[in-house]
Write a structure and sequence with these properties.
Elements: H1 2-10, E1 18-26, E2 29-38, E3 41-49, E4 57-64, E5 79-87, E6 93-101, E7 111-115, E8 125-130, E9 132-135
Antiparallel strand pairs: 1-2, 1-9, 2-3, 3-6, 4-5, 4-7, 7-8
Bound molecules: copper (II) ion.
Length: 138
């Protein structure tokens, strides 16, 4: 559902040069992330469900590394692009939009990581998805 809504929104926007998608999962959580690569920068949508209702804000990032081989399984993306925090609503769902003007998606593989908010504000990974290109060549 969330993905369809995002696709609907695409029709009214500048055509992205590339679109990346990630299915987020982990610890009973499910969600999606979509990254639009636009001439003016990146636009990132993240949706997550299965959070504890009203459990606060969750840090999330696009992770990458210098070797270009970052992936969820290895959690080896030691560099990040920060995204708007996900805030769990009364149903345990969260959605966040981030605009990153002038930013390009790093070379190589990247993934979207959502972090626990306890015991530290940016804790261990609780949901993750490897970003894959789904639209390109405009
Ligand atoms: Cu992170």
């Amino acid at each position: 559902m969330a993905v369809l809504a995002m696709w609907g929104a695409l029709g009214q926007m500048v055509r992205p040069k590339e679109v990346y998608y990630a299915a987020l999962s982990g610890q009973g959580l499910r969600g999606t992330a979509v990254v639009l690569v636009l001439p003016e920068g990146l636009e990132v949508f993240v949706y997550l469900e299965g959070l504890k209702p009203g459990s606060g804000a969750y840090a999330n990032h696009i992770h990458f590394n210098r070797a270009g081989n970052a992936n969820c399984r290895e959690q080896n993306g030691d560099q990040i692009l920060g995204l708007t925090s996900l805030v769990a609503d009364a149903n345990g769902r969260a959605v966040a939009f981030t605009r990153l003007p002038g930013v390009r998606l790093p070379e190589g593989s990247t993934y979207v990581n959502v972090h626990a908010n306890t015991p530290t504000p940016v804790g261990a990974s609780i949901a993750c998805g490897d970003l894959k290109e789904i639209v390109g060549g405009y």
